[in-house]
Write a structure and sequence with these properties.
Blueprint: E1 13-15, H1 24-36, E2 43-45, E3 49-50, H2 58-64, E4 80-85, H3 89-101, E5 107-111, H4 116-119, H5 131-144, E6 151-156, H6 165-175, E7 179-183, E8 210-213, H7 219-229, E9 233-236, H8 238-242, H9 246-259, H10 262-266, H11 273-284, H12 291-305, H13 310-319, H14 325-334
Parallel strand pairs: 1-2, 1-9, 2-4, 3-4, 4-5, 5-6, 6-7, 7-8, 8-9
Length: 338
């Protein structure tokens, strides 16, 4: 396809949109780490911007995607695509067009969010039960957005089950979407393991690139996902927050396997705890509404890091009730001392 031909010339690695998690500050940190490790993300996608009753003012788009002020890229140069969510095709189209006027390099449409409050207002994954509505939204957005700007969609395998997969695939095929990202679970399955990567295969019949997502915590799982889904393109979510070096590990693992080179695999780029300290401090010194919010967001990240770093668990036990940012930074600096 013309719009995706260059973007997908090689396997792409993307940082997933995760509401309340991969906000602008977290995107800045994670994309910087990936860039420093020599395997930058090809792009990331913003948290969803909910479209309800009107065309949103510019300040709303800038709040969710401040990167629009900087050529829609993070400080490390990673492009940020703008994700929108809603059920009114015309409103979605008008907002998408305005986002492009503000500098969005691509528009992604959210049909995957499983949140009850979102679904109850006909947004996110509930629309997987309405393939015709999906078609109307994607095609309206595609028609409203300049021809050179890609439009993509992110879906799950279904809402309560996978019985509508054929209809969903047909809607995507007819809509004009430039590529498709699939979280390999239904809404009902939420985030509970496993992810059903093999079910992504049927979407490869579409004449557009397909990106696999869901339950990728390690390089080995990434390899299994690519094998079972029959696509080389991956979107990394919670695993990339838990192990910020996951994107580099994935490609090192893939290259090592291709070369049958165990030594290459053993020498894969790894971010040690002491190397992550400076990034955590930068996070704690980042922009936020206030320090209470910032400390809360940091503790959320640290809690996830405990799944990837033993040192994080020790630090968590020490600061989990601490509210003073300066004290947390001191404890963080001390965590590398033996």
């Amino acid at each position: 396809m013309p719009l995706s031909e260059n973007l997908f010339a090689n396997p792409v690695r993307l940082l997933a949109p995760m509401e309340g998690l991969t906000d602008p500050l977290m995107r800045q940190i994670l994309t910087q780490i990936a860039s420093d490790l020599g395997r930058p993300y090809d792009w990331s996608v913003s948290e969803f911007i909910r479209i309800t009753q009107h065309v949103l003012p510019a300040h709303v788009f800038y709040r969710y995607v401040p990167e629009l002020h900087h050529d829609a890229k993070t400080a490390s140069g990673t492009p940020i695509h703008v994700q929108i969510l809603g059920s009114d095709a015309q409103l979605m189209a008008e907002n998408a067009a305005y986002a492009c006027e503000l500098g969005a390099p691509a528009i992604d449409i959210n049909f995957g969010c499983p949140a009850k409050t979102v679904n109850s207002h006909r947004g996110g994954s509930v629309l997987l039960d309405e393939p015709e509505t999906m078609y109307q939204i994607i095609s309206a957005v595609r028609l409203s957005v300049p021809a050179h700007i890609p439009v993509s969609a992110k879906i799950r395998l279904g809402y309560t089950d996978t019985s509508r997969m054929d209809d969903i695939r047909g809607a995507i095929a007819a809509s004009g979407a430039d590529w498709l990202t699939i979280h390999a679970r239904t809404k009902t399955q939420g985030y509970k393991p496993p992810a059903y990567w093999d079910k992504i295969q049927s979407f490869n019949a579409l004449d557009i690139p397909v990106i696999a997502n869901g339950e990728i915590w390690t390089a080995a799982q990434a390899n299994d996902c690519m094998t079972q889904s029959a696509t080389h393109h991956l979107m990394l979510g919670r695993g990339a927050v838990t192990r910020p070096d996951l994107v580099a590990q994935v490609d090192s693992h893939t290259n090592a396997n291709a070369e049958s080179n165990t030594e290459s695999l053993e020498n894969a780029s790894t971010l040690l705890w002491q190397d992550l300290i400076a990034h955590q401090i930068k996070f704690l010194e980042g922009a936020a509404k206030n320090d209470v919010v910032l400390v809360g967001r940091y503790k959320q990240w640290l809690g996830m890091l405990t799944k990837g770093y033993a040192e994080a668990q020790t630090l968590w036990e020490r600061i989990k009730r601490e509210k003073n940012k300066a004290v947390i930074i001191s404890a963080l600096q001390a965590s590398v001392q033996k």
